[in-house]
Design a protein that fits this description.
By secondary structure, the protein is of the alpha/beta class. Helices cover 42% and strands 19% of the residues. The protein contains 13 helices and 16 strands. Helix 2 runs antiparallel to helix 3, helix 3 crosses helix 4 and helix 3 packs antiparallel against helix 13. The chain is globular and about 90 Å long.
Length: 459
């Protein structure tokens, strides 16, 4: 009799939960399904004889109804996920597959600007430069983050791309700008630097940047899906035009074996494959973060006139996602690239020589090639010059119409950096195909509002 009561009580509890459809998630449905699987059958439970078989029939009917409702709810959630993917894809298409943001670095202690700040964010889409003789020059972007913007605000604009990665799209997020404008701050800002360097460059773990937030969000969204994902982590740098695996320790002795050379190839489907690049399967966010810390220790840095720990290479994180049982995904295996580009400052400013000069030239050549590729993609040109640099060769299948790209351009508020700021803003303008006017900006904000409302309903 106790078993019968337990089954009846469970049926009542589940039916009461089924009414809370506004809070349903795929994890909730899976948990209830697991409970149903553990329900005792007539054969496995030593049922006590009763005066009538009516109670047994009622129990069977209750369990059957619950199973039917769970099947219905699972199908319902799958349909909502399909609608969410469709709305998200249309939303990102309206926004543009290649979006350009600008972030203005805040003023730090010891920097004195008097009464004039050369760079001002006039609104959420416009940057204004104050020039000589009361002249100004304005630039429009998809989003402008003023000096007081938080890491939360930045990631809110980036997060939709992470959702599209779960749906099978390749994606790429760049941080561009001269050394000292906050690229690594935006991308990282976590306490790995206490292991990586004695110089506080990225801040503390209380306000993490895009890299840790994106990886953590990726794992959370993968858990909420009804599919099993295989996620792997890789990290490399492009130093003076050469690819180096940052998860392979550098030889310390002459007798140590040299790491294998990395090669860029294309598979039959046109997907880019990097031969000999280490890809380590990760099961959670903490595993990925530990690998990231390891790779950061091996990145090439040096002291320059711009920064004591200037990055002398492009640092590239690749998170590969594979799902074998989701036919609705764009592709079986796709990639998220998180790229902290080398400083874009001109050699004239750094007054570098020797090795530092060669590093600066290599960085600027590859950045110029990246600008050419993005400009060609925006203008729908037949020929896109991917082969002009290793950077664009690696990212060939993660740029373009079937991918999602965000370029975060960082600028300094310092008057002495005005020339570099103009160069960075011109580069960003070149990468952006459409300049939103006031009317277009209003429409864009309305689209964003209704997109958030729809997602809240669907999720």
């Amino acid at each position: 009799m106790d078993s019968e009561k337990s089954i009846r009580n469970l049926a009542v509890s589940l039916h009461s939960l089924l009414g809370l459809k506004t809070h349903l998630t795929s994890n909730w449905v899976k948990s209830i399904s697991d409970i149903i699987k553990t329900l005792p059958s007539e054969k496995s439970v030593d049922m006590q004889p009763t005066n009538s078989d009516t109670d047994d029939d009622e129990d069977d009917d209750s369990v059957s109804k619950i199973k039917d409702e769970l099947t219905f709810l699972t199908n319902y959630i799958n349909q909502l996920n399909i609608k969410r993917r469709q709305i998200l894809h249309e939303f990102l298409d309206l926004k543009g597959n290649i979006r350009v943001f600008c972030r203005i670095r805040p003023i730090t202690g010891g920097e004195n600007f008097g009464h004039l700040r050369p760079v001002v964010a006039s609104n959420s889409n416009e940057v204004v430069l104050k020039l000589m003789d009361n002249k100004t020059k304005s630039y429009n972007f998809d989003q402008v983050f003023h000096p007081g913007s938080s890491q939360d605000q930045v990631f809110t604009e980036v997060e939709p791309i992470i959702k599209s990665v779960i749906d099978g799209y390749n994606a790429c997020i760049f941080a561009y700008g001269q050394t000292g404008t906050g690229k690594t701050f935006t991308m990282v800002r976590t306490n790995y630097l206490r292991i990586h360097s004695q110089h506080v460059k990225e801040g503390s773990a209380d306000t993490p940047g895009i890299v840790p937030r994106a990886i953590e969000a990726l794992f959370k969204q993968a858990v909420d899906c009804n599919h099993a994902f295989l996620i792997s982590f890789s990290m490399l740098e492009i130093y003076k035009g050469n690819l180096k695996d940052l998860l392979v320790p550098k030889p310390t002795k002459a007798t140590d074996p040299m790491p294998p050379c990395l090669s860029i190839q294309a598979d039959p489907k046109g997907e880019i494959v990097i031969g000999n690049l280490v890809a380590i399967e990760v099961n959670d966010f903490n595993q990925a973060l530990r690998l990231y810390r390891l790779g950061c220790r091996l990145r090439t840095t040096a002291s320059t006139n711009s920064n004591l720990t200037s990055s002398r290479s492009h640092c590239m994180i690749r998170v590969a996602i594979t799902c074998f049982d989701a036919s609705e995904r764009r592709r079986e295996t796709n990639k998220l690239w998180l790229v902290d580009l080398g400083g874009s400052e001109r050699v004239l400013k750094t007054k570098a020589s020797g090795k530092r000069l060669d590093e600066g030239k290599a960085i600027n050549l590859s950045l110029s090639a990246l600008g050419d590729v993005i400009s060609s993609l925006q203008r729908k040109r037949h020929h896109v010059p991917y082969r002009n640099s290793k950077l664009t060769q690696v990212l060939k299948d993660s740029l373009g119409d079937d991918s999602k790209t965000i370029m975060l351009v960082h600028v300094s508020p310092k008057e002495e950096d005005l020339c570099e700021t103009i160069c960075s803003l011109n580069f960003a303008t070149r990468a952006k195909s459409v300049h939103l006017g006031n009317d277009d900006t209003t429409v864009s904000r309305q689209i964003s509002f209704w997109y958030i409302v729809l997602l809240q309903y669907l999720l």
